Amino acid sequence: MQIAIAGAGKVGYYLAKSLIDRHQVTLIERDRDLCEKVAEDLGITVVVGDAVKLRVLEDAEVRRADVFVAATGKDEANLIASQIAQDHLQVPKVIARVNNPRNEPVFRALNIPITVSSTAVITQLIQQEVSVADIRTLLTLERGNLAIVEVQLAEDAPVADKMVADIAGNLPRNCVLVTLMREEAVIIPRGDTVLAAGDRVLAITTLDKAADLQKALVGH
Q1: What CATH code is carried by the domain that includes residue 117?
Q2: Among residues 127, 149, 175, which one ends one of the domains?
Q3: Is pTM beyond 0.85 here?
Q4: Which of 27, 88, 108, 134 could cross-link 46 (Cys pair, CB 3.0–4.6 Å)?
């Protein structure tokens, strides 16, 4: 799959890094120095230019992409780039990062159907499945030391077949279970939700508690 990403900041960089093993990725970034650094680090094509300009997107061959992700730090740039990719270049799937949630209705009003604000969610929209080894930091939040992490529950996980309320006392402080992904279902965990082997658990925690979260959920 060919994926074009506008913006080589934290979100764009780590999104590209998480996808390059399975897909052909092109980054578009207006900062030339950053382009050179990312191209050297990731070994992918990085096009220098402003993604809000049609010519730049054409030079990056965005028309050939299966997915276009507007992941810059500016909502106005993401909106314009998404419209160009969708309406002029006919990219089948366009995903726009929204930095300010208040702007999301504007994106939808202008027919940008997929708007997200997390690298993890963008990755899942593209791949439909995220491969992880027990626990993986998906996104370090820009402020503070919080991270969104994912845990895969194995058959022998100590929390399997237990309710969230029953394991709450064993979880580290500053940890919140956000969603459970079970086969095709996405479950918002409540106190009486029973965890099952095979569940992918998304949680928000502090970086220094990630290992404790792993131990509490998967036992090692």
Answers
A1: 3.40.50.720
A2: 127
A3: no
A4: 27
Greater model confidence, 190 or 184: 190
- Alpha carbon 45 to chain centroid, angstroms: 20
Domain boundary (77, 94, 127) is at 127
Residue 122 reports pLDDT greater than 70: no
Compute the distance between CA of residue 195 and CA of residue 190 in angstroms, rounded to an integer. 10
Domain identity same for 203 and 184: yes
The mean pLDDT value for 151-176 works out to 89
What's the longest Cα–Cα distance across the chain?
57
Q: Which residues of 157-188 are buried (b: 16+ CB within 10 A; e: fewer)?
A: bbbbeeebeeeeeebbeebebeebbeeeeeee
Burial of 55 from C-beta contacts in 10 A (0-12 / 13-18 / 19+): exposed
Determine the structural domain holding residue 84 and report its residue range: 2-127
**Together in a domain, 9 and 112:** yes
The CA distance from 129 to 168, in Å, is 27
3-state SS of the chain: helix, strand, coil percent to 5? 35, 25, 35
First to last CA, the chain: 35
**Same-domain check for residues 12 and 83:** yes
Task: Look up residue 2 and give its two tokens.
Answer: 């060919």
Gap between the Cα atoms of 128 and 33, Å rounded: 33
> How many domains are contained in the chain?
2
Q: How far is C-alpha 201 from the chain's CA centre?
A: 15
Angle between helices 10-19 and 119-127 (to 10 degrees): 30
